[in-house]
């Protein structure tokens, strides 16, 4: 089965026109040099600043994981997060960021993770009922709506599934109607969602171990990792956006791919009906989805120590743009890199190169705190949807889809599909 997989048409470094570091903060076809698809580093000067674009797997492992403290988030990236959300984990750096991560850690522990599956089951069942009534649907809208529904119950609610009220539904619709690349506008609408959480007294239903439960307390959250009231509010907005945008986009791509491979979809449905786990297959499928369209396609870091990459010496003070999108499509690392191939990540006895690594959630001190939550949500939601519905994407419709990169890698148009309810 041939699956259409849109890609970016990256341009050579000689065609780039970078004037400030702000020019590279967003992934665009004219901001990432195409040389990264075949070599590990590209160097340029922006003003008087050395800037290195990196797709070398060993260097990325050092920067994002092994010694991430020596390569902290760049201030320009932090300012962008602050502009969108305020003083949240996306809008802070250094000790403030570490304190916030410690305070928010209970949200991503085992007791909360165990709630993802029951909430995801109910939310996905409601989604299947809602969308199977229509002849044709946008999988992006379905997936983002479902991801937001789960986040609303898990992180901004009582920890069990609660259908959104009519007022919340209106906020959901406003959010879903916005262009996918309008992150600031999305954050503004999500602030309205958090305001409704407060106005409706829903915050009072939130378990006490969740810091958001203290969102109306002027003193904020106490303890050895305190949060101010403003920080709690900002992180509530940040959590809502992460669930809606990052997990929702990944789910949309996964459902769209399955819609192009009805044979694989039917096989997984039969296995589900026979009581056979399809978790390994879905982990492989979403690993391949995140290889091609990573939720965190790049990361801007500041070098605080020297690093040697290939023939380049990266000095302290240099800016480093880590490019997982390019690494994931390097022709010398991934055979036929633009082809969707679930078998790349299936558990087999076939040895894989240690360089065949993916970095969908960044890593180290700036890693996505919700990655375990995202995996459970993706698997649970997909199991329910393919058990209840057959997703069909027409080849001619799929072939029209391109990419609209920005903070995320979004499709440039709706991901249209038919959703056929299984009797």
TrEMBL record:
Q: Which residues bind heme?
A: 368
State whether keyword Metal-binding applies. Answer: yes
Q: Where does the record place a coiled coil?
A: none
Cofactor entry: heme
> What EC identifiers does the entry list?
1.14.-.-
Name the Pfam families on file.
p450 (PF00067)
Going by the record, the broad EC class of this enzyme is oxidoreductase
Q: Which domain of life is it from?
A: Bacteria
Q: Can you provide one Gene Ontology molecular function annotated for this UniProt record?
A: monooxygenase activity
Please provide the record's keywords in A-Z order: Heme, Iron, Metal-binding, Oxidoreductase
- Report the sequence similarity comment from the record: Belongs to the cytochrome P450 family.
Under which name does UniProt file this protein? Answer: Cytochrome P450 120
């Amino acid at each position: 089965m041939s699956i259409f997989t849109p890609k970016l048409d990256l341009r050579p470094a000689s065609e780039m026109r970078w004037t400030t570091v702000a020019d590279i903060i967003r992934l665009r076809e004219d901001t990432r040099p195409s040389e990264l698809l075949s070599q590990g580093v590209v160097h340029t000067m922006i003003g008087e600043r050395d800037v290195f674009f990196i797709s070398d797997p060993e260097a990325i492992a050092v920067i994002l994981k092994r010694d991430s403290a020596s390569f902290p988030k760049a201030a320009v990236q932090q300012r962008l997060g602050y502009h969108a959300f305020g003083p949240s984990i996306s809008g802070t750096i250094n000790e403030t960021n570490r304190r916030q991560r410690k305070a928010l850690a209970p949200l991503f522990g085992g007791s909360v993770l165990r709630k993802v599956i029951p909430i995801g089951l109910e939310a996905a069942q409601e989604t299947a009922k809602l969308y199977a009534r229509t002849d044709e649907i946008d999988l992006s809208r379905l997936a983002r709506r479902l991801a937001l529904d789960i986040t609303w119950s898990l992180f901004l609610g009582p920890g069990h599934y609660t259908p959104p009220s009519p007022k919340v539904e209106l906020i959901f619709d406003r959010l879903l109607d916005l262009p996918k690349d309008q992150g600031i506008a999305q954050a503004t609408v999500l602030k309205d969602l958090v305001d409704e959480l407060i106005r409706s007294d829903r915050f009072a239903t939130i378990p006490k171990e969740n810091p958001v439960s203290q969102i109306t307390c002027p003193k904020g959250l106490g303890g050895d990792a305190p949060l101010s009231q403003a920080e709690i509010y900002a992180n509530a907005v940040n959590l809502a956006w992460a669930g809606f945008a990052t997990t929702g986009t990944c789910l949309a791509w996964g459902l769209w791919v399955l819609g192009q491979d009805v044979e694989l979809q039917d096989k997984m449905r039969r296995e589900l009906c026979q009581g056979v786990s399809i978790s390994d297959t879905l982990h492989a499928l979403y690993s391949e989805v995140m290889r091609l369209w990573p939720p965190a396609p790049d990361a801007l870091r500041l070098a605080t120590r020297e690093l040697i990459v290939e023939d380049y010496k990266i000095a302290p003070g240099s800016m480093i743009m880590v490019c997982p999108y390019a690494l994931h499509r390097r022709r010398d690392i991934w055979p036929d890199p633009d082809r969707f191939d679930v078998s790349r990540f299936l558990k087999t006895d076939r040895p894989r190169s240690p360089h065949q690594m993916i970095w969908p959630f960044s890593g180290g001190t700036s890693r996505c705190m919700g990655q375990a939550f995202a995996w459970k949500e993706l698997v649970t939601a997909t199991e329910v949807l393919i058990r209840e519905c057959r997703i069909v994407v027409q080849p001619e419709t799929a072939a029209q889809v391109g990419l609209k990169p920005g903070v995320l890698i979004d499709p440039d148009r709706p991901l249209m599909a038919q959703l056929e309810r299984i009797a």
